[in-house]
Amino acid sequence: xxxxxxxxxxxxxxxxxxxxxxxxxxxxxxxxxxxxxxxxxxxxxxxxxxxxxxxxxxxxxxxxxxxxxxxxxxxxxxxxxxxxxxxxxxxxxxxxxxxxxxxxxxxxxxxxxxxxxxxxxxxxxxxxxxxxxxxxxxxxxxxxxxxxxxxxxxxxxxxxxxxxxxxxxxxxxxxxxxxxxxxxxxxxxxxxxxxxxxxxxxxxxxxxxxxxxxxxxxxxxxxxxxxxxxxxxxxxxxxxxxxxxxxxxxxx
Length: 252
Ligand SMILES: C[S@@+](CC[C@H](N)C(=O)[O-])C[C@H]1O[C@@H](n2cnc3c(N)ncnc32)[C@H](O)[C@@H]1O
Fold this sequence. Notes:
By secondary structure, this protein is α/β, with parallel strands linked by helices. It has a single domain (4-248), classed as Rossmann fold (3-Layer(aba) Sandwich).
């Protein structure tokens, strides 16, 4: 699939993040990040993900585009962009990748509102929206404080619900269901591994009862050359993109 905005964004990421850091420095950051997400998950909440230039660059340059490519496929598979939402609220937007994928897939129509705990990631999300020619803003704050849209709105949680404390997660679920009952479309994306998402069966039950669906995805990927190089150098393998999702189409 050709996606000129995506290709321009990758060029801009490469210029920004490889200006001050070498390939081996970013590769090291990538290995540290993936070890945090897979083996040392307890340190994620303390902000360890963003505590070094190499990790920040790897987050923006590698995981951002990977999440973009994955969400682009999911959005197309569940029909999330027809009709295009007028606004997408991207909760825990990170560098803005997941929400941007949905907005680009919807023809650039939706206005994005990203909210993100890390000020660095929120500013990176603003750069993502600008690089991709999208309208939107990203602010730093707690996603639980964000007002949720209703009819014609989309709500996205990309790889973030697994980072919430259980009390926050329990508070969020009824709010998402209520927003969907008012007409918002809700998309939750998480890793395919089950260990980070023990709450998944309960959320699946709630989403399917409300008329939604659960999916496990495996998409063949064609990574941009730089990402493929990082993938190999860091000993990872993203020739297939995997994810799980929950989708609620919103009451009409
Ligand atoms: C794995 S990253 C995913 C980022 C982005 N959604 C994506 O798909 O690329 C999870 C993000 O959620 C943010 N986050 C975690 N808890 C949050 C909270 N309570 N409020 C706002 N952001 C939060 C983290 O700072 C991190 O940037």
